[in-house]
User: What shape does this take?
Amino acid sequence: MAKEISLKTTIYTQFYDFDYSQQLLRKLTFPKTENRSDEVNKACKLLVDKKMNFASLNSGEQFELIKLSGYDQLKNDDMSDKDKLVFNIDQRNDQYTISTGIFCGVINFGDKLPSVEITAGISDSFFKRILNHCCGIYADTNTKSSASKNESIYSLLIQYLFLISLRKVASQSFPKRYLSRTEREYSIKGEIDIEEYVNKDILMFDKKVTYKYQTMKDIQNIIDVLYEACKKCEITKSLELPDIARLKIYLKDNYSHKKCSKGLIKNILKDKSLLNSLYSDFKRPLKYAQVLLNNEDLNSGENSKISGISGYLIDASFLWEMYLYNLLRMNLPDWKVDSQTVISFYDNTFYKKNNRPDLVLTNKKDGRVFVFDAKFKSMRFSKYANDVDNNDIRQLHAYSYYYSLTEKDKFCGAALIYPTQVPYEDQTNNVDQMYSIKDAPSKFGVFAVYDPGDKGNIKESEEEFIRRIKVFIRGEDA
Assistant: This one.
């Protein structure tokens, strides 16, 4: 019974009360049927009985945290243990729910145990779009979902991991090994084959000489594994990347047309050529190629060989921050966009603190400054929903006060930026003067990128978001 259930929830449920979190868990686990609470509770209880009811990044579990480019440099190193929470199963009498932190992904517990999928709380097409921007993919294709069935986070992450690692080796030579060849020509390119010369060449009238030489050739097994893994990546069918496209052509032209055996896939990382430092970077794409080719159904995220809690995770808050960073940087050419700029408070005291505003915009001509904070939380634009956390407001106002002192009249405003499923026409009353002081020299706003769902046009949502940000930083009325 339990193995048939893949428990499904979303990020940040530790901020929800027990009843709402449980309702969300049942709804996401069984989206098209009645809320089968008994089955959800039995699956959770099974994990609790096996003492697999809690995991954090520093709890020694076998998690692979997916670190996209810039993660280590931009992510705060002083995150508390609470911030590193992956999941925790909460119990109230015979009822259960799952509390989650900032990480989305798939968690496996081995054979005969249910898996847990933590979603980002947004549509699949929007999640793909965010991943694209974080991976440096800005093509306008794939702004609408065209897949016949939704891909799980596990499937998407493995595919992106493979493509990212493959892109990093796009400019490098493929692993090669030396092969001995023998030819018979008038000119000699290597060493004369004495045996052939005595037994054959000396008796011939054409005066050709047999010689031996060494040449380097691509390792066929590596070519075949990478090519078959590329074919397994569904996301490349609607999104062609120039460097990946060139690689696929090369792999296809050199493919042996013999399907890779399970033994070949299993042992591909043991190839001696990978011991050469020139080719060591190929270990990572080959590792993910193994996962792609070994799992018949990537959407299941199933792995029966593990002996504990394991999985692939990605920091959802970092994804959102980097998505906004790239989106603003591309669309605001007159502004310098900085991410995670370090500002120090009270340098000469024992209570010195370093703070990092998510995004700081500085006008390249006049030096005007705006500070933005990226918040990957749901936004409903309702005064009754308590969408904007008071701590978030305090944090951003602290940054604002710092820049008002250091930049004086060049500091012009601050804003919080969220994802939302509320259409733009319903996003009203989102900008005011700082602290609502009538003649304040700076202003405060709350903005959001609209998630139109899998059938909507995300590119249009991004354009509308940028239009509103331009109005805000130019000081005009929307």
In short: The CA atoms of residues 304 and 396 lie 45 Å apart.
